[in-house]
Amino acid sequence: MKWERLLASGRFGEGMKPATSDTVRSEFEVDYDRIIFSAPFRNLQDKTQVFPLPEQAFVHTRLTHSLEVSSVGRSLGKSAGEFLLEKYPNLQALGITSSAIGSIVAAAALTHDIGNPPFGHAGEEAISDFFRLHPMGRAWEKHVRVDQWADLVNFEGNAQGYRMLVSKQFGLKLTYATLAAFTKYPRPSLIAQRDIARKSQKKFGFFINQLTDFEQMADALGMEKISQDSWARHPLAFLVEAADDICYSIIDLEDGCTLGLVTFEETLKLLKPILGDKFDKEKLKDRTQAQNLGALRALTIGQLIRETVEVFAHYEENMRKGNFDKALTDMIPSAKALAEISKVSVQKIYRSKVVLEKEAAGFQVLDGLLSVFSQALYHQFYAPEYFSGQDKSILRLLPEDFPLKGWGAAVNPYPMLRALVDFISGMTDKYALNLYRRVKGISFPGG
């Protein structure tokens, strides 16, 4: 893979453009602005990060998390860009700047959670479990292809995000480079054999009906295949992944400390190995805990950014050749310290009572919503003898643009099911909970 093509600024439907910078905004800055003003991005303000929609302003939502990941991503991208321009002077002659590279990573990082359903990762599992285990979900298996069924029983927020970013519904028309940097897992759900040694093979990055879109993007950027059904990552995707890893490791720990799930002393002990000689206990005196946490977070993230860029520079050629496929944060000097933070976070934060209660509620809500809408759709088009007045009322709650025509026993319902999952996964936590209560008769509109 060559940087000249990897950094090209073409968009879907608009052909390829050289990677030159506009005098006002680069094409990649345009991407960033389009994302900020999009409806899917705004919805992240009411989606769970870790803790369930608390009243405390200091705890993060998906929106604040995404903004922070984007900020770290921009720093990573600009620093990596300076290295690339020094190593490959021809890039500068093409009009490529370190700021443009930073903008690619920032825009991709801004969208990294855009496909996540309500209730965080529990929501992903709830959607998968509905099709895999619920009788009303399993009823669809005989009507779809094997690769389509693999999509439905393995809901993946990354693939849902890619679907949203290329969807005509939202009209984002992002550059190929930003979309590729977003795609951490450049493969479909069903592949012949997964290489467990490659980080990019851990999950999948697009649903089967987005395969043509992905192939178009990969061809435009010169992304190389590593097997019959999988591609090598765009090198900037490693930086997007690192930005996310850095933020959730450090900021989830900060939130856990603020909520009293982890003591300040334990938080300090976990961060010391990363900070090294940058840690000065004297500076913590005569300040509030919140101020100290903020200062420690900033110093820690700054150090992790520097370490990550050094590792990126070291492995950059192997990334372009498709030979490097690990998380950058697993390769930095602070990797052991991050692993210890992750271990403590799992024990004391992610398995805390408040988080587990939120996850349990998420399973009930999403399973309940999927069951009533799925049953109504199945009865109308695939078992009309059971279609009831209740089903008719439920279907009227679907969005106006929901595809409700052309289905029947002889028609593959996969596109309709994808639209149903779009509807459910696109909900905010509060909307999903309120709609669940209403369709289940637990509460009434205006009540």
Automatic annotation (TrEMBL):
The keyword Translocase does not apply. InterPro entries: dGTP_triP_hydro_central_sf, dGTP_triphosphohydrolase_C, dGTPase, dGTPase-like, HD/PDEase_dom, HD_domain, PHydrolase_assoc_dom. Pfam families: HD (PF01966), HD_assoc (PF13286). This is dGTP triphosphohydrolase. Keywords: Hydrolase. Coiled coil: none annotated. Residues 58-258 form the HD/PDEase domain.
